[in-house]
Design brief:
It contains 17 helices and twelve strands. By secondary structure, the chain is of the alpha/beta class.
Length: 369
């Protein structure tokens, strides 16, 4: 995308009455943003949803002044722009009808042809949520997923930190322009995140972190990934909006269950109860439902291979010996025969997969390698 086209895309974003859906409709009809402003009103009027008021707004000269100012900001701050028709734009977000026509990015990351998950939840994360989030990311680290969150307090920043601890790419989707960081106390994480990851936003440099912006950015968090995981949430909250958006986009949603008396488990429990989320006890649940292959990693990750000598703890050894003796077995049967609760055996089997001594098969079957 050249500078002239970017300028006209920015101008189009400033036209009253033109949101992302209408902008895409205009671009698809006219070919590009510049052609929209050069087309005759009689031609544009044939487009469904374009009326006299919108045609008048397209002639407003102030939109070009705003576009020029924002273009200068983008150039002077080396902001990357991702256009919805370009190959660099997130693939999954292209399939969301209300996905932004432009994204602004900072940092160092390639988002396509990668495993991507979004992790969301309460800003008042408990020790239970913190430990679950850290273990989840540690267990997923061998698959080298991109971890997406909102860079807010609580679950968001715990997820980003855990990703950085395991050298995973992590992206913060922020609800404001690239001229600031919110919350300011998280400024200390910016440099490290941008070394292997960074930030995305659809908001201009004059946009502040207003309440409605957080709701708007949640569709990016939900739409950009294969699955959204809700770690903890009260009965109402922004993470539940993200979960509902993910469902609308036909993405998988997972929720971590908790005690019915815990305030910050109510939202997750309700998602599970109403079948709007898969119950998540461990990373194994996500790997199984998303059908991620532990033995076929991308170029950045070593393939899981069987080692000559593998250290197994007592639980792992018991299950491995059982599978060695009995061959392919269903998860439920393994749990029954080895006297393990289902929630525990999923995690043990995942550890055995990561150590390269057990592999999953279709139909919840497992076998020793």
């Amino acid at each position: 995308m050249n500078e002239q086209e970017l300028f006209h895309l920015l101008a189009l974003q400033k036209v009253d009455g033109v949101g992302d859906i209408m902008a895409k409709k205009l671009i698809n009809h006219c070919g590009n943003a510049e052609a929209i402003f050069k087309n005759k009103p009689s031609h544009l009027a044939k487009i469904d949803g374009v009326g006299a008021i919108l045609l008048k707004n397209l002639k407003n000269k102030t939109i070009f002044e705003s576009a020029e100012k924002e273009l200068k900001f983008i150039k002077s701050n080396a902001i990357k722009t991702l256009y919805f028709q370009d190959a660099s734009y997130p693939d999954k977000l292209k399939h969301c009808i209300d996905g932004p026509i432009l994204l602004f990015a900072s940092g160092d990351f390639e988002i396509n042809q990668r495993k991507i998950i979004s992790i969301v939840g309460t800003r008042q994360i408990t020790s239970y949520g913190t430990e679950f989030c850290k273990k989840l990311i540690a267990d997923l680290a061998p698959l080298d997923p991109i971890i997406v969150s909102g860079f807010a307090y609580g679950v968001d920043i715990v997820a980003h930190q855990a990703a950085m601890d395991h050298n995973l790419t992590t992206i913060g989707v922020v609800a404001h322009g690239m001229n600031q960081i919110y919350p300011k106390t998280h400024s200390k994480y910016v440099a490290k995140m941008e070394k292997n990851g960074g930030f995305l936003t659809e908001f201009w440099s004059d946009s502040n972190p207003e309440k409605e912006n957080f709701v708007q950015r949640n569709r990016i968090v939900a739409g950009i990934s294969e699955a959204t995981i809700v770690i903890e949430s009260a009965e109402k909250g922004g993470s539940l909006i993200t979960a509902n958006l993910a469902n609308d986009y036909n993405r998988d949603v997972f929720a971590v269950p908790g005690r019915i008396s815990d305030k910050f488990s109510q939202g997750c429990n309700n998602l599970i109860k109403t079948q709007r989320a898969n119950l998540m006890n461990s990373a194994a649940d996500l790997i199984y439902i998303l059908n991620w292959n532990l033995e076929a990693q991308n170029n950045k990750t070593k393939t899981v291979q069987k080692q000559l000598f593998v250290n197994l703890d007592n639980d792992e050894q018991k299950i491995y010996d059982y599978l060695q003796k009995n061959g392919k077995q269903l998860l439920d049967i393994i749990a029954l025969e080895c006297d393990f609760p289902i929630f525990k055996i999923s995690g043990v089997l995942l550890n055995l997969e990561l150590k390269g001594v057990v592999r999953p098969l279709p139909g919840k079957l497992f076998e020793a390698i």
